[in-house]
Write a structure and sequence with these properties.
Strand content: 25-35%
Largest sheet: 4 strands, antiparallel
Strand order of the largest sheet: 1-6-3-4
Helix content: 40-55%
CATH class of one domain: Mainly Beta
Low-confidence stretches: none
Distance between the termini: 158 Å
Radius of gyration: 54 Å
CATH architecture of one domain: Sandwich
Number of strands: 7
Shape: rod-shaped
Number of helices: 2
CATH superfamily of one domain: GOLD domain
Mean pLDDT: 85
CATH topology of one domain: Jelly Rolls
């Protein structure tokens, strides 16, 4: 069984008292926010509510949502139990509400201060990492500039070599087509001249 009690204002105090007849029962107290989140205020446990009434209070530091009193007899298969209870919700007095608001403001301020401190540490770390990355980037840019300069120099060298290679190919072709044939003809002509008999040798023969 669940008993849901709305919490309409900040600092409300829930007071409860219950008892069961003859046997114990499981009890827990939960808080459900308007967003559907559930928080355990009193963990589930077996209580001897048949021996003496169970009494408790809880002051809520948030407005909205429900307090949920849970009476559970699922552990007992054979015995049903009756539960009697008294539940009340009291608003806080002015001094208590003022103190509660002060405590909540102090808690938020502490949380905000801790968040700022974490953000500052993270910002310092990121700033240091960014500085290192800028230095690495500058080095890489210098290396890229050096590589680009080397590429230009080697590209000019390749272009000059290709020009010289083309010129040499043309020269070789010219030698093959003109100079070498002419030399062969010249040598052949000279050889033929040397091979012809002279007139003196013809007249002196018997």
């Amino acid at each position: 069984m669940e008993l849901r009690v709305p919490i309409p204002f900040l600092g409300a105090t829930l007071k409860y008292s219950f008892g069961s007849d003859h046997y114990d029962i499981n009890f827990s107290l939960l808080f459900e926010s308007d967003r559907g989140d559930s928080f355990v205020l009193v963990p589930d446990s077996r209580v001897a509510s048949h021996v003496e009434p169970v009494v408790g209070t809880h002051t809520f530091t948030a407005a909205g949502g429900f307090a949920v009193l849970v009476f559970d007899n699922s552990f007992s298969w054979w015995r049903s139990k009756s539960v009697s209870y008294v539940v009340s919700l009291e608003p806080p007095d002015k001094n208590k509400l003022k103190d509660l608001k002060y405590q909540m403001a102090l808690k938020k301020m502490t949380s905000c201060s801790e968040d700022i401190d974490r953000a500052q540490r993270r910002q310092a770390r990121l700033s240091s990492e960014a500085s290192e990355l800028r230095q690495d980037l500058a080095k890489l840019e210098d290396q890229v500039a050096s590589i680009q300069s080397a590429i230009k120099t080697k590209s000019r060298l390749v272009a000059d070599l290709e020009k010289e290679d083309t010129w040499l190919k043309q020269r070789i072709m010219t030698q093959k087509r003109r100079t070498i044939p002419n030399l062969v003809i010249s040598l052949a002509t000279e050889w033929l001249r040397e091979s012809e008999p002279s007139e003196d040798q013809d007249e002196g023969s018997p």
